[in-house]
Specification:
six-stranded parallel β-sheet, 46% helix, binds ligand 26Q
Length: 857
């Protein structure tokens, strides 16, 4: 059948000569008066409101637009500097960027908080209340997505030419409601009220192909070339988000793609009278970027997810190549020196075959030429040790959706298999193990292997994790290419997680370090000014000696106390539970997963409750335990654990015997903006995963910076946190990763429980239905998992040592001066966990980018 298509091109329209007005525009003022002026303009003219209608959201919107204008000026200058210097660049490809709120961070990094606070005061407004209006940009699940956001902040602060590429999900991470203790998911339509922090760039729209088939033809030069035809195309429209550096005039770019239908109408269908159906079919294309997948561990194999991954990879690579060709024409000789792609886990690994495809099919290269470029410009970061979480795609689905890419993957694998055969002649088993294409009646593509084969660098995210990757998950590949493997311990940005989240503590630090002549600038409004420590966190070491200064400890404690009050107010509002700020605030917030062992935490809480009930309360330390986090909607056990937390909480919190001694709360809808309040107000940070399972953790770092002490296993970055803080300032418990492995096969939880009186009583309370009187049996699956010799998370194995460590925590907390000392030392030694250090490591070992000073107007 003939398919006639009308194609409406959206060609970019450029004026031939640059406009003269550009250089005439003076920089916008950074003083309160200029801000008030701009604010009024947006409020009355752009939004069209009068001051009788001071709707909070419009206030937020007007202020944000005023801030955005100031970002845009610096943005243009930064991009001009990158262009002029024609410097090497890195593109950070990630399916997730968990940005949270932007207004406060923009003001902080622009160094405009003081004048904005004053401007708002003149208008009768309070900054904190305005900032609260902003929806979180929840375009990520958890650690991996937030890491990408912290990295962008550090890259801009370090003036590195790094650009993020991601997806502009219409719906971000679901909103979590709690109903009768159960998690309910609600869609997060975060863009409903508009988003002042993005600029649509329709002129850079890219076309992404799906489906169809491939054909081989000779081209004009007689060379055989592949053509990918009869495809269903989807347009990718970029939205740019500014990423400001801290007080340095640099603004980098995060480019997020939105899927949009092509403007083609299938006329044959149209003429057959199915106009509405033709339009509706186009709508389906736009589903690609409709929603973020809410899985932080597994649930693989969904076609829409593969569409998302390829959509990101293809649109981003086309974008980079488009810019390259517009500057260098067809000369790709320097492409590999000038461009680099960092893959945030395997999610964007379609970029490997896609870059091959574009270079060969669209730019006429041979396989060898294209592979030389691809294999020099890609690096892969792994974020998981759970084998079940490694991505695999069924070959049949992959081939149906991306037929040309499948051919390329097969060819990459065929050539790789020759390398393996050369290295291990005759070792067929090794070839089978290492094959990118997993054989069997149902073939699969192993995305991690594809990423490793193409990459110059493969890294884990904490020392232990990187070692375990070499020893277990990727052992064969490590033996083949030992030099590819390296570690880059995660970090978090101190601008958001200290300066913004904990202004009082930041000011105290600034005063204290500044009084020694380290460039302290007085700042009366509550936030740190241009102090050195926020961009050189090793300077925090200067606090060590103040741990012994009693008057400093008083100030330190007073700040923690205020932050606990702020947290308690939030909890009162969001979960209706009252936390007494004199109690120990014991916090575990992160995604709910069995390996993270929220269950172990609950068992301890039940044990404390049991002690209260039997009158064992001599030398008691009052405790308020906070747990929060989202469960993947299809993860039954995780959802049941949430219900258990809430069930135990309602028994304890309503029991007069526990009043003043113990509280338990589950905070609904844990997210970035909640963590900003939580990390500042925590005393104790729970990092209690089964050793060898948590790749790194990053919440652990946010807590440490804010002076919380950690109770934790020897897992992920906990090990490095303990080494930095000093072993005496960390509460260690549990099996090591090696012991965990050695326990498999002869684990006997029933025996452990039977021999431990406290544990027996805890299990009895659970089994008797004490926490689920009206819903009998609902915790059976949880109880079974604890008793199971096959429990992969060894919850029972670590119970006794956890309870013991918690005893030490309680005792330590009652020695207020000593606790404060340990708290100060944790903050003072947290410098390593700044994402600035992480990014400098990436840049030194992998990216090799220059630092580029932004042009000043
Ligand atoms: C997989 C398949 C289909 C849909 C979604 C996914 C998916 C999405 C997100 C799989 C994994 C993730 C996220 C993983 C993650 O956040 N890992 C965490 O990464 C942090 C940053 O390196 C580490 O600190 C944590 O230890 C690690 O768990």
């Amino acid at each position: 059948m003939n398919h006639w298509r009308v194609i409406i091109h959206t060609k970019p329209f450029f004026v031939k000569s640059p406009l003269a007005i550009e250089t005439e525009v003076p920089q916008l003022g950074m003083d309160a008066e200029s801000i008030v002026q701009d604010f009024r303009h947006y409020f009355s003219h752009t939004l069209g409101w009068d001051t009788k209608h001071l709707v909070a959201h419009h206030v937020y919107s007007s202020l944000s637009h005023s801030m955005r204008d100031r970002l845009v000026e610096r943005w243009k200058n930064t991009q001009a500097a990158y262009r002029e210097q024609n410097c090497r660049r890195t593109f950070y490809l990630s399916l997730e960027f968990l940005m949270g709120r932007t207004l406060g961070n923009a003001m902080l990094n622009l160094d405009i908080e003081a004048s904005t606070t004053e401007a708002l005061r003149n208008l009768g407004l309070v900054l904190e209340e305005v900032a609260e209006q902003e929806n979180d940009a929840g375009l990520g699940n958890g650690g991996l997505g937030r890491l990408a956001a912290c990295f962008l902040d550090s890259c801009a602060t370090l003036q590195l030419p790094v650009m993020g590429y991601g997806l502009r999900y219409e719906y971000g991470m679901f909103r979590q409601k709690i109903d009768n203790g159960y998690q309910l998911e609600e869609p997060d339509h975060w863009l409903r009220n508009g988003n002042p922090w993005e600029i649509e760039r329709p002129e850079f729209t890219a076309r992404v192909k799906f489906g169809g088939q491939t054909e081989l033809h000779k081209d004009a030069h007689g060379r055989l070339r592949a053509y990918w035809k009869y495809t269903n195309d989807v347009m990718a429209v970029p939205y740019d988000v500014p990423i400001p550096g801290y007080h340095n005039g640099t603004v980098n770019t995060l480019r997020l793609w939105k899927a949009s239908a092509t403007e083609e109408f299938d006329l044959s269908e149209f003429n057959a009278g199915s106009y509405a159906e033709a339009v509706a079919a186009k709508n389906a294309a736009e589903h690609i970027t409709m929603v973020l997948y809410p899985n932080d561990a597994s649930e693989n194999g969904k076609e829409l997810r593969l569409r998302q991954q390829y959509f990101l990879a293809s649109a981003s690579l086309q974008d980079v190549l488009r810019q390259w060709v517009s500057n260098h024409g067809d000369d790709f000789s320097e492409f590999a020196e000038k461009n680099f792609f960092q893959l945030n886990d395997t999610h964007p690994t379609c970029a490997v075959p896609e870059l091959m495809r574009l270079l060969m099919d669209e730019h006429g290269m041979t396989w060898e030429e294209a592979w030389k470029i691809t294999s020099r410009t890609v690096a892969y970061t792994n974020h998981t040790l759970l084998p079940e979480a490694l991505e695999r795609w069924s070959v049949s689905m992959f081939g149906r959706l991306l037929p040309r890419l499948l051919e390329i993957v097969y060819e990459i694998n065929a050539r790789f298999m020759k390398v393996v055969a050369l290295h291990w002649p005759g070792d067929v088993e090794r070839q089978r193990r290492m094959s990118i294409v997993e054989e069997g009646h149902d073939q699969h593509i192993r995305m991690a292997y594809l990423a490793i084969v193409a990459s110059v660098s493969v890294n884990g995210v904490a020392e232990l994790h990187s070692e375990l990757l070499k020893k277990y998950l990727f052992r064969d590949f490590f033996e083949l290419w030992p030099k590819k493997f390296n570690n880059k311990t995660n970090g978090v940005t101190p601008r958001r997680w200290m300066a913004w989240a904990n202004p009082a503590l930041s000011n105290l630090i600034t005063h204290t370090l500044g009084s020694e002549g380290k460039g302290w600038v007085a700042n009366m409004v509550g936030h740190a000014a241009s102090e050195g420590w926020l961009i050189d966190m090793d300077k925090l070491k200067g606090l060590v000696k103040y741990a012994d200064d009693a008057s400093f400890r008083v100030k330190w404690r007073a700040i923690k106390q205020d932050n606990k009050t702020r947290l308690a107010e939030m909890l009162q509002r969001d979960c209706g539970v009252e936390f007494n700020t004199n109690a120990l605030f014991d916090v575990q917030v992160k995604r709910i997963h069995e390996y993270k062992r929220q269950l172990l935490n609950v068992l301890h809480v039940i044990h404390l409750y049991d002690r209260i009930k039997r009158g064992d309360t001599a030398d008691w330390t009052p405790r308020c335990v906070l747990i929060g986090g989202k469960a993947a909607p299809g993860y039954k056990m995780a959802k049941r654990i949430i219900k258990l937390v809430n069930a135990v909480a309602s028994v304890i919190n309503s029991d007069p015997d526990a009043e003043g001694l113990l509280k338990l709360a589950f905070i609904p809808d844990y997210r970035v903006s909640a963590m900003e309040v939580i990390c500042a107000g925590a005393d104790l940070s729970e990092q209690i995963s089964t050793a060898g399972k948590e790749a790194s953790g990053t919440g652990n770092m946010k807590f440490m910076m804010n002076g919380a002490l950690t109770i934790g296993t020897l897992d992920g970055a906990n090990i490095e946190i303990r080494d930095e803080a000093g072993h005496e300032n960390f509460f260690l418990f549990g099996l090591t990763a090696e012991e965990v492995e050695a326990t498999r096969g002869h684990y006997n939880p029933a025996k452990i429980i039977a021999e431990d009186e406290d544990f027996k009583r805890v299990m009895h309370l659970l089994e008797s239905g004490h926490f689920n009187l009206f819903e009998p049996g609902i915790f059976d699956s949880i109880i079974q998992s604890i008793y199971s010799p096959a429990d992969p998370w060894l919850t029972a194995a670590d119970f006794r040592s956890y309870v013991q460590a918690q005893r030490e925590v309680s005792n330590a907390y009652r020695d207020t001066e000593h606790w404060t000392r340990m708290s100060i030392l944790n903050t003072a030694t947290s410098g390593k966990f700044s994402s600035d250090r992480t990014i400098l490591d990436y840049n030194r070992d992998i990216w090799h980018l220059p630092q580029v000073e932004a042009k000043q107007n």
